[in-house]
Structures are given as structure tokens and as C-alpha cells.
Specification:
With 148 residues, the chain is an alpha+beta fold. It has 2 domains: 17-115, Immunoglobulins (Immunoglobulin-like); 117-148. The chain is 30% helix and 44% strand. It is built from 2 helices and 9 strands, in the order H-E-E-E-E-E-E-E-E-E-H. The protein has helices at residues 2-15, 118-147; strands at residues 18-20, 25-27, 31-40, 46-54, 59-61, 67-69, 73-83, 87-97, 102-113. The strands form 2 sheets. A 5-stranded mixed β-sheet has the order 2-9-8-4-6, with no helix packed on it. Strands 1-3-7-5 form a 4-stranded antiparallel β-sheet, with no helix packed on it. The radius of gyration is 26 Å and the shape is rod-shaped. The mean pLDDT is 88. The chain crosses the membrane at residues 119-137. InterPro entries: DUF6049. Keywords: Membrane, Transmembrane, Transmembrane helix.
Amino acid sequence: MLLGLDLISSAQGLSNKIRLAPGRFTVTSTKQKLPITLINDFPNSAKLSIRVEASNGKVLIEPVPQIVVNGNSKVQVMIPVEVVTSGKTNLSVSIRSDKNRALGNTISYPVTLKVISPIATWVTTVGGAVLFISALIQSFRRIRKKRI
């Protein structure tokens, strides 16, 4: 029994030597890169890939190329995302070895999406310009009426 518990704790200790740092994000533009910190506590370098999945369709994630993390170091990996609509989502991020084996635990990152779409920006800008021009025209008409 004691040997089994020791083996489990040793395996958990080894699996946590390559891990992701926890965090949360707020995205304010339609295309952005999210920095995720990857930690390697082993003395040797490791060739890793990162798999990212969103909990809903509010954000699109581009694939991340394989990276090499030196021993006893931390690396920030930039995850390119594109926001479809505002709201909240979770990104599930897992680490894979070069042989496609899962390493460490999957980490869930809460993401708040606060994006105004470009279409909404254009509609608001055009509406403001039309309102300003119509106010100028009305002012010129009032000035002409007073002169007559």
C-alpha cells in the first residue's frame, strides 16, 4: 500500500515538472495573441506542442507550432486568437510531447471578450457624421431665416 502511494506521488511530481502557468485574459480587439507561460523544470530541453480548444464558438484559435523549451526555464507562447463576438469563454490548453503524449494537466483559462465589431464601429461613425452634417445644415437654414 505504501509503495503504491509513493509511486503515485512520484508520478504526479514528474508530470508537474512540465506545466502551464495559470491565468485569465481579457481580449479587447478582434485579433490578438494571448501569452501563455510554459514551465519546464526538467534539466533537459523538451520539444512540445500546445493544443488549445475553446468552450464555445465565440473565439477562433489558430494552430500553434511546436516549440523547444530549454531545461529549467519558462517560455511565453503566444496563442493567436480571433474574436467572433463579445462574451465569455474558456480556453482548455494542454501540452503534448513530440510523440503526441499528454504531459501535465489540462489548464482552463477564463477569457472575457470585450470587442466592438468593425461593422458596429463603421455604423456608429457614419451615423455620427450624418447627425453632424444635418445639424450644420439646420444651423445654416436658421441663419438664413434670420437675415430675411
